[in-house]
Automatic annotation (TrEMBL):
It comes from Streptosporangium fragile. Gene3D superfamilies: Dihydrodipicolinate Reductase, domain 2, NAD(P)-binding Rossmann-like Domain. The gene is argC. Catalyzes the NADPH-dependent reduction of N-acetyl-5-glutamyl phosphate to yield N-acetyl-L-glutamate 5-semialdehyde. It is found in: Cytoplasm. This is N-acetyl-gamma-glutamyl-phosphate reductase. SMART domains: Semialdhyde_dh. It is an enzyme of class 1 (oxidoreductase). The keyword Amino-acid biosynthesis applies. Pathway: Amino-acid biosynthesis; L-arginine biosynthesis; N(2)-acetyl-L-ornithine from L-glutamate: step 3/4.
Amino acid sequence: MKAAIAGASGYAGGELLRLLLSHPGIEIGALTAGSNAGSTLGAHQPHLAPLADRPLLATTPEHLRGHDLVFLALPHGQSAAVAEELGDDTLIVDCGADFRLADPAAWEHFYGGAHAGTWPYGLPELPGQREKLRAARRIAVPGCYPTSVTLAMFPAFAAGLVEPDVVVVAASGTSGAGRAPKPNLLGSEVMGSVGAYGVGGVHRHTPEMEQNLSPLAGEPVTVSFTPMLAPMSRGILATCTAPAKPGLTAKALREAYEIATKDEPFLRLLPEGQWPATSMTLGANTAALQVALDERAGRVVAVVAIDNLTKGTAGGAIQSANLALGLPEELGLPLNGVAP
Ligand SMILES: NC(=O)C1=CN([C@@H]2O[C@H](COP(=O)(O)OP(=O)(O)OC[C@H]3O[C@@H](n4cnc5c(N)ncnc54)[C@H](OP(=O)(O)O)[C@@H]3O)[C@@H](O)[C@H]2O)C=CC1
Ligand SMILES: CC(=O)N[C@@H](CCC(=O)OP(=O)(O)O)C(=O)O
């Protein structure tokens, strides 16, 4: 199988290439970029030595055609035009947001502009989703925060243990914001400080979290989401809480998480008493989970750590692509992180 990567000079593109270099079933084909087309990959991804001399081509249908698989790691709004030019014989895996949401009104509210459409959602752990991905020719990779929050909360909703009222506070590393310069991401302002942003129900990942959890709850789930920027390059640590249903015990909660995670290759429910940290999942396609019942407050507290670029983007994209290509789901994906 041959894969092209559009957006190869960016953070998500770089992580796709790092993982694909160790993937035994996928060969790396054309690499494309925007303004950096014409240069070589080594100028932008110096950690990927085997590909250093590969040219970055312009992101055109001509350069992407003729591949079994195309990963799009482009800014929001760029994917539809590219996808329209590629036939169904090419599997397209879009790391951007364009095709994640089912509700056009939610798209218009949070992103603005016309809704491009809806593709099968690339989170195999979401109950019922794995089978849909096996038949997919187009895949919308989830946002990094929605990946973390959905993985933390789906066991509680699937077992009917919590009320549909979730509060999330999540810290992300700066690579989540992409490589293009941004005024609030100057190194001297990010280093040595953790700060909230996108507060008050305005972050565009909120409707995606609600979309994932509501079908499991059987009623609309409301998520109050507060993201934070942390002085690290990679990683998300999300703390998610929801009111416990009456009578819930700590034992029943633990059992629900054990059942939901035991056959999932990339979900690691930590031993009781151990809590997730981003350092546990650095460079791994793993989500580290822990859950507790706060009996005083009557709330379930679930904490999850992922690497935003691995399970949160590129690793998740390859996991879903493996399913759609009929390959083993875990092929080429690291379970182990980098530590210390
Ligand atoms: N970073 C993350 O943690 C996550 C990212 N994603 C998604 O992945 C996608 C890429 O994000 P990320 O890698 O962080 O972003 P970057 O800014 O790091 O990279 C963007 C890439 O797109 C290329 N590009 C920009 N504009 C154009 C254009 N007009 N035409 C063609 N290519 C263009 C850039 O090329 P050039 O170098 O030439 O400018 C670069 O290769 C986004 O949709 C993002 O939402 C999803 C989940 C998490
Ligand atoms: C730290 C940071 O800025 N994170 C990004 C989200 C990460 C991401 O890439 O999400 P999309 O795929 O939806 O763009 C943000 O909050 O906008």
